[in-house]
Design goal:
Elements: H1 3-11, E1 12-26, H2 32-38, E2 41-58, E3 64-80, E4 92-106, H3 112-121, H4 123-141
Antiparallel strand pairs: 1-4, 2-3, 3-4
Helix pairs in contact: 1-3
């Protein structure tokens, strides 16, 4: 394990995971309870760290604390098979998307490189179980097929500042 990442792991303690934004919708005319037999769909996923923040907190009594917040964008969409050629947009029948945050108390600031490494390689450990539950419950509410995600997955994109 690289030393920057280990420094962040040693400096950060998970404080909270929260849902910041969500969208769940079906396209007009799409009836998920009946559509899957007639119209095959493929499911596409997204998962990426979209930004990070260091937040200064004060209790008003000379007590200050720093939080490190990681924003992770997650999503699933159901697309009609064969609906997309190279020049057209896919025919999206349903989508469930959200932004979740993970907050960490910083015992000390481990440095920007360490925070970036941590956001890409560790924050998903904390957010992923909440995403799995959110997606499963939304699928049930919307009459979409059950989706079973793997136990863990890591963001593969670079952090956007």
């Amino acid at each position: 394990m690289d030393t920057a990442l280990q420094k962040a792991i040693d400096s950060l303690q998970i404080q909270d995971v929260a849902l910041r934004a969500s969208v769940a919708e079906l396209s007009d005319g799409f009836e998920p309870r009946y559509a899957f037999e007639a119209d095959p769909l493929r499911i596409e996923f997204k998962h990426g760290v979209v930004r990070t923040l260091v937040i200064e907190l004060s209790d008003g009594l000379d007590g200050e604390q720093q939080l490190f917040r990681v924003f992770i964008e997650l999503g699933a969409r159901w697309v009609a098979v064969g609906s997309q050629d190279s020049a057209s947009e896919p025919d999206v029948k349903a989508r469930i998307e959200c932004v979740m945050t993970a907050d960490y108390v910083m015992r000390e600031h481990p440095g920007d490189e360490a925070l970036k490494a941590f956001s890409m390689r560790n924050a998903s450990y904390h957010v992923w179980p909440y995403w799995r539950e959110f997606l499963a419950s939304q699928c049930q509410r919307m009459n979409l097929p059950k989706v079973t995600l793997p136990v863990v997955q890591f963001a593969a994109n670079p952090v956007h500042a």
